[in-house]
Design a protein that fits this description.
This protein is an alpha+beta fold. The protein has 27 helices and 26 strands. The protein is elongated and about 180 Å long. GO terms for molecular function: phosphorelay sensor kinase activity.
Length: about 900
């Protein structure tokens, strides 16, 4: 058989490979294998993706037609064609929908939408439309497959490009590496063979290091050496042996160096390298494991200590779940969990590893690195606790950068300031500045914290709504590791209510001091009035009605009466006079006062009453309640010269602990609230601070004494109530008076004895008063009506005189307030001398005031200063006539 016929009988692939080199045959073979494998995979992926996309469109078509049928059920039943069209128009906007057709039960179309230019294949779905089980129409939807085909084309294109790119990469890389690892050593071998053929036996084959060609080169060298003379054969063999020994030594040295390098790398890695198996046993682990866990490396390798033995019980299940997930997904894993060391300590571990499989797909081993993250986890937990504490703190916390730009605020700041966090972050601290502090204050504060020192102090900030709040503030700088200020932390305790209560307390204390002072002034003033009034009455006794000087004396007497009323107001403010209180219907009293006010104040001022029904009764002095209403109404009249509105309101209120915390003087309980408001000029803050002080007035000279509101303040306090005033310039004024409620509603009746004829006598009376004018006036009046009068300037003299003249003295008139031995002490000593002695107290206080306790100790009566002649003579006669 000739050569041509033998070639014709060979299979085509064999002919093809015979005409090619090894490198080309290998490249083509690899390319065919890659083409077949990747082509099969890509074909499978393309087919599966195509089916999934087709199925997805069919599912969407089913969902769409079902949804249309459900949505159109009620509109078709109601023949609501407009609603039908609206619903279908919404679905028609879907790019996948090519046609929507809705017909009724008789086949009449109600809506027909068709994209006429659509030539793509379609998916058609139809469904009957039912209402309460009755078929009322039919819905038909067609989905186009244009988008589906575009995606398939894109998938096919990318698959072809991927396949082509892979084949090209195989061809190029195979040609390159074959040239590097096969052609080059073969060329060297061929050149060596040429030299041997030329008779040159000195050429060596050390340059060929590939294992497959090294044997051929070695045998070829041996063959060349055998050709040499037998004399050189032994020498050549010996040389080869020496070369082989040297090569082995070099290899062993390289191996030792490689091992040392590997060990150095492992020892200097930040973590602990390990290699183990899926049953948690350890094949290899870094020596540093002993420093971390207290277990030597040998215990893991030889004694069978498994890594799972160290994991704490609470974490073992989570770690196993992550390991199983890594096996299923064939991905690397990262796990953070706790282990228990040999000493019992708990450490946090970050485990990062990879599962390695063998050729059959089974897990061969697991390798990875452990990292000790205990410090980081503890720092994270500490940071979380700190952040939680700041978030839940009652104090306002602000964190800014060094220039003062706010970076963080806590919820307490948001609650107090009204700013939301996103509104305030990014702004400078200046957004909170108020006009309570000047620039020097802020510069000084900034200078302290800029030096790295802590600033503490009182600061007033402006809130979002413009109101001001007062804070006790501490601003601390935050330093980085190099000592440079990077942040400022401001902790602010809201003391607005505390400051307000302190101001109220100072005001109350001031009013108490002023009240005490007013009481003392009233006592001395009473003595002066008593002298003036007494002498005026004595002069009037000797004057006829039309006689010269009668009118002037009457005016003096009237002036002393007005002065007496003034001292009563002072004593009322100082709470030196108790009220004549009884259960009172405040609404009834207000209606009575309204009738009086309508005849008193100008008609251009409108009076409005808003009185609560079923208003509780209060224990109050009716006259003093009228004084309150009249005084406040007249003040309101002066504040409304051009007219306005005066509103009087009552209501039942209950004050709780929260209200009382912010209103000094208030106590929890039931109260009647009396409010008097006007639409007048109002008052500024400075005026409000002084309105209840005696003799303070904003009226012109001669138009007010400044005692009206002071008297009201005293009356309210005397009734165990409290009063608040709210006013702003131009906004009017409101007074709110809180009076405690009583259970009883019984009315008290008042009777006043008619004045009787003044009678004198012949008894001896001891008059005790530290004021000489009072003694002289009293003596002259009493002697005018037939009495014998002995006088004493103090308690000691009175006692001495009483001891001497006890048999003669039938009555003692005793001033309560005197220097030295006071009236009360003198009273006690007189009663010790004679327990049946008739003693009458003379004082500027009422019998229900401070004199009330004195009256319980034995005196027979009380005369109020300044007294007129008739009152004193009537009380003297009454006591003298009493039988013991």
């Amino acid at each position: 058989m000739d050569e041509k016929s033998s070639r014709a009988d060979r299979p085509f692939p064999l002919m093809y490979f015979k005409r090619r080199s090894i490198s080309r045959n290998l490249t083509i073979s690899l390319s065919l294998v890659v083409f077949l494998v990747m082509g099969t995979i890509l074909t499978f992926v393309y087919s599966k993706q195509s089916r999934q996309m087709r199925q997805e469109i069919e599912n969407k078509a089913d969902e769409c037609v079902c949804m249309i049928a459900e949505l159109l059920s009620l509109p078709m039943w109601n023949f609501d064609r407009k609603n039908i069209e609206q619903v279908c128009s919404v679905f028609a906007q879907n790019e996948l929908i090519g046609k929507i057709r809705i017909v009724d039960a008789h086949g009449q179309p109600l809506f027909d939408f068709n994209k006429g230019d659509n030539q793509d294949p379609i998916v058609k779905r139809a469904r009957s439309i039912e209402y309460q089980g009755r078929v009322i129409g039919n819905a038909e939807v067609m989905f186009t497959l244009g988008d589906y085909n575009k995606k398939l084309l894109l998938l096919l294109t990318s698959s072809v490009v991927t396949l082509g790119g892979s084949i090209i990469a195989i061809i190029v890389s195979t040609g390159f590496f074959l040239g590097l690892f096969l052609r080059k050593p073969l060329t060297v071998l061929q050149r060596s063979m040429d030299l041997v053929a030329q008779g040159d036996y000195s050429y060596g084959f050390e340059k060929i290091r590939q294992m497959e060609l090294a044997g051929i080169a070695k045998r070829f060298s041996q063959m060349a050496e055998n050709i040499q003379t037998r004399e050189t054969a032994l020498q050549n063999i010996n040389t080869e042996l020496q070369d082989e020994i040297g090569e082995r030594q070099r290899a062993e040295k390289a191996l030792r160096q490689s091992e040392e390098k590997y060990r150095f790398l492992v020892m200097n890695l930040p973590g602990i390298v390990y290699r183990g198996f899926k049953d948690w046993s350890v094949e290899f682990i870094d020596e540093k494991i002993e420093l971390l866990t207290g277990y030597p490396m040998e215990e893991f390798n030889s004694k069978g200590v498994k890594w799972s033995d160290l994991i704490v019980a609470q974490d073992i299940e989570i770690v196993k779940e992550k390991f199983i997930h890594a096996i299923k997904t064939d991905r690397s894993y990262i796990r953070e969990y706790r282990i228990r060391t040999n000493s019992g300590n708990i450490l946090w571990i970050r485990d990062r590893g990879q599962i390695v499989r063998d050729e059959s797909g089974e897990i061969e081993y697991v390798s990875g690195v452990f990292f000790d993250i205990t410090d980081r986890m503890q720092a994270d937990q500490e940071r979380i606790r700190l952040a939680t504490a700041v978030e839940q703190a009652a104090e306002s916390v602000i964190i800014s950068d060094r220039p003062g730009t706010i970076q963080y605020v806590n919820p307490a700041f948001e609650r107090l300031s009204g700013f939301r966090r996103e509104e305030i972050v990014g702004h400078n601290f200046r957004i909170l500045k108020s006009d309570r502090h000047d620039e020097i204050f802020y510069k000084k504060m900034w200078g302290i914290i800029s030096r790295g020192d802590v600033w503490q102090g009182h600061i007033v900030n402006t809130m979002k709504d413009g109101t001001l709040r007062e804070f006790e503030t501490t601003i601390s700088p935050v330093l980085d590791s190099s000592g440079v200020i990077v942040n400022f932390v401001s902790v602010n305790r809201d003391v607005t209510q505390v400051v307000a209560l302190e101001a109220q307390l100072r005001h109350v204390q001031k009013m108490q001091v002023v009240g005490t002072l007013a009481g003392g002034i009233a006592h001395d003033f009473n003595n002066l009035l008593q002298a003036i009034q007494g002498y005026a009455e004595l002069l009037l006794l000797g004057k006829e009605r039309d006689e010269s000087g009668q009118r002037e004396l009457q005016e003096i007497f009237k002036a002393t009466q007005r002065g007496a009323e003034l001292t009563q107001q002072l004593l009322t403010f100082g709470r030196k006079i108790e009220s004549k209180r009884r259960p009172l219907d405040l609404n009834k009293r207000i209606r009575e006062v309204k009738n009086l006010l309508e005849r008193t104040i100008p008609k251009m001022i409108k009076i409005e009453l808003y009185l609560a029904e079923n208003l509780n009764f209060v224990d109050a002095d009716p006259v003093q309640m009228e004084q309150i209403l009249m005084n406040l109404a007249l003040n309101a009249k002066d504040a409304m010269p051009d007219g306005g509105e005066l509103v009087i309101e009552t209501e039942n209120v209950i004050l709780d602990q929260e209200y009382c915390k912010t209103h000094l003087g208030a106590v929890p309980g039931k109260f009647v609230l009396l409010s008097i408001s006007d639409t007048g000029e109002g008052m500024d803050k400075e005026t409000l601070e002084h309105i209840f002080e005696p003799f303070f007035t904003t009226k012109e000279v001669g138009k007010g004494t400044g005692l009206g509101l002071a008297m009201i303040y005293g009356i309210v306090k005397n009734h165990e109530g409290f009063i608040m005033c709210y006013s702003e310039p131009g906004e009017g004024t409101t007074f709110k008076i809180y009076l405690p409620v009583i259970a009883s509603s019984e009315a008290a009746s008042e009777t006043k004895a008619p004045a009787g004829e003044i009678k004198g006598g012949c008894e001896t009376i001891l008059l005790v008063d530290d004021e000489k004018t009072i003694r002289d006036i009293g003596k002259q009046i009493l002697e005018t009506y037939g009495y014998t009068v002995l006088t004493a300037a103090d308690g000691e003299t009175a006692l001495e005189l009483y001891r001497k003249e006890q048999e003669r003295i039938e009555l003692v008139l005793l001033d309560l307030i005197m220097p030295g031995m006071g009236g009360r002490k003198c009273l006690e000593e007189l009663l010790k001398l004679n327990s049946r002695a008739k003693i009458v107290i003379i004082t500027g206080y009422s019998m229900n005031g401070p004199a009330k306790e004195v009256l319980k100790s034995g005196p027979k009566g009380l005369i109020n200063k300044p007294y007129d002649m008739g009152q004193m003579l009537e009380k003297v006669r009454k006591v003298l006539d009493e039988k013991l």
